[in-house]
Design goal:
By secondary structure, the chain is an all-alpha fold. It has two domains: 51 residues, no CATH class; 115 residues, Orthogonal Bundle (Recoverin, domain 1). It is built from nine helices and no strands. Helix 2 crosses helix 5 and helix 6 packs across helix 7. The termini are far apart.
Length: 171
Amino acid sequence: KENFDSIPDLEFNPIRGKIVHAFFDKRNLRPESDGLADEINFEDFLTIMSYFRPIEMNMDEEQLDRFRKEKLKFLFHMYDSDRDGKITLQEYRNVVEELLSGNPHLEKDSARSIADGAMMEAASICVGQMGPDQVYEGITFEDFLKMWQGIDIETKMHVRFLNMETIAHCY
């Protein structure tokens, strides 16, 4: 994990900790795994990077759907920090506070209000109108899929690598 400290572009990312944590989250590395790895090998690194690959033009609908769900599962795991299968209000508050931490004009209470409002919106999308005695316990992965429906995650969550050809210089 300490090797990630030397990546300059991560230094100023407000959710740096969550990104680094995702590389060591066994749920992202192997199916049906849980917990955190102490270190990752090259294959594990490539597995995590594969979540950021762009879509391929020859993918059919089934492949696109599976590709989309893989990306969303990765994001879900970043939010579900206690690995219980739900994103609770407190987990969501933590993420929003981290994301907005670099804004000096935004109070912590404002970030909390934003998170609370987003969680109420999630509840209305996923559960519908709730009674006064009903409590929304958190966003499940199925709820997460509903919330991201219609949002083009496939093209937004990717890493683009420069295609640089090596040229031999002879003198």
